[in-house]
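#struct-pred

JT: dropping the chains for the assembly here, can someone run the whole complex?
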Amino acid sequence: MGETRVNPSIPDFSHGLLPAIAQDADSGAVLMLAWMNEQAWQETLASGRAVYYSRSRQQLWRKGEQSGHTQRVVDIRVDCDADTILLKVQQTGAACHEGYASCFFRSVDSAGQTHTVEERLRNPDEIYGK
Amino acid sequence: MGETRVNPSIPDFSHGLLPAIAQDADSGAVLMLAWMNEQAWQETLASGRAVYYSRSRQQLWRKGEQSGHTQRVVDIRVDCDADTILLKVQQTGAACHEGYASCFFRSVDSAGQTHTVEERLRNPDEIYGK
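RK: done, full complex below.
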């Protein structure tokens, strides 16, 4: 308190990658969670398309560059702590690489058992041309 | 491929804490993102109330234990990679410690400037009795 912070970085990437939630702007469905570094963030702002950072491939991930399932960004939110990003998007095709509209297609019951509760829109082999 | 995995842990806490998104079960609004360890997960399943792990306090965080702003869990989802949790909740009061319904009360424009776009429901000083 009493400390003056000039232009605090929002969002704050000083501790590393930040989680970014993609939400369907029309239905409100939570589609996926991915990660951003500052470059992904800046490219998302500039392009109006969701760009993430792939932790497994350790490189920028322009969502849809392989699958065509791009996300047009309608609104960007940051949370109170400036360490989580929420993108409201218009999703082309299926957000999930498994071919579901949302990555959250499994529900967990109170015994910890999972149940698939969404319909698969696409065969993953079709999406990636395997 | 061809490998048999018996009872893979879902969600998979083997690499540490997992992000957990809380979404309002009625409005679809994304309320907050917090973190879970396996104990928080198990207690959430057993109690039907959202329990997280506070990274700053390094202890279990039974959402609402201080503020009264509890989250009754209506549905639990896990994502395709089993490394992100989505809780659909009935939220009592304000999810955000800043007194907003959602922690994502700030929108970011294409120039990177933030704008508060939600109404504050509660004065934070009231919530925490400061």
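JT: nice. The helical segments of chain A are 38-47, 124-128. Chain A is about 10% helix and 35% strand.
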